[in-house]
Amino acid sequence: MSPELIETILVTGTRDMPLLGRHLVRLASSAQDLGYRCDEMLVETQVRAAAQALREAGPHRLRLLLERNGQCTIQTAPLLPLPLVQEILIAPEPLDASEPLLRYKTTHRPWYTQTIEWLPSHPHIFDLVYLNQRGELCEGSRSNVYVKKNGRWYTPPVESGCLPGVQRAALLEAGEAHERVLSAHDLREAEAIRLSNALRGWFDVVLRDA
């Protein structure tokens, strides 16, 4: 059975979806690359209807799952606030940057299974950040990573083994971050560290020693 394509979308308290357009573009591109059917207009209609149908106040997480045959499933849940200080650790196992599915957000992510199972019991650790087999900084299991050097923000290129996140794309397009091959040394010596994802935006984190 083929994995499903995933888009995890922020629905604000006013039922806006600021990054929806970028999510739909990425979904359509992934579907084309991997041979999935994707009716973009139908998907957008279903997503907007699900967002408007939410009854609880406050922001929500909307998870869109697309099967190879084009069937779409939507799941929603309230988006709870994070603890004030969020920390990261460097993951003990490297990623294989040559794995083609690293560039696509799908339900087949076995390289992150242990981390995803471990994180809920450690609420102050937002993510584990991975290096690849060459020692280059890649990404977190649910986030892109940014390092501040000489007053500028840098994030690893996709070629290092990371998902082209929609929040990451917005930051790159706005010139707020720039692609650069980075190392664990860059992470440890950074002036500041941030993560980003579509639900939480772009936010500061602290690197904790294991």
Protein architecture, described:
The structure is a single chain. The protein has an 8-stranded mixed β-sheet. Strands 1-2-3 form a 3-stranded antiparallel β-sheet, with helices on one face. The chain is built from 5 helices and 11 strands; from the N terminus they run E-H-H-E-E-E-H-E-E-E-E-H-E-H-E-E. The radius of gyration is 17 Å and the shape is globular. The termini are far apart. It has 2 domains: 5-78, Aminotransferase class 4, branched-chain amino acid transferase, N-terminal domain (D-amino Acid Aminotransferase, Chain A, domain 1, 2-Layer Sandwich), CATH 3.30.470; 87-207, D-amino Acid Aminotransferase, subunit A, domain 2 (D-amino Acid Aminotransferase, Chain A, domain 2), CATH 3.20.10.10. It has 210 residues and is an alpha/beta fold.
Distance between the termini: 37 Å
Number of domains: 2
Q: The CATH topology of the largest domain is what?
A: D-amino Acid Aminotransferase, Chain A, domain 2
Based on CA atoms alone, the radius of gyration comes out at 17 Å
CATH superfamily descriptor of the largest domain: D-amino Acid Aminotransferase, subunit A, domain 2
Shape: globular
Overall mean confidence score, pLDDT:
96
Which ranges are low-confidence, i.e. pLDDT below 50, for 5 or more consecutive residues? none
Helix content: 10-25%
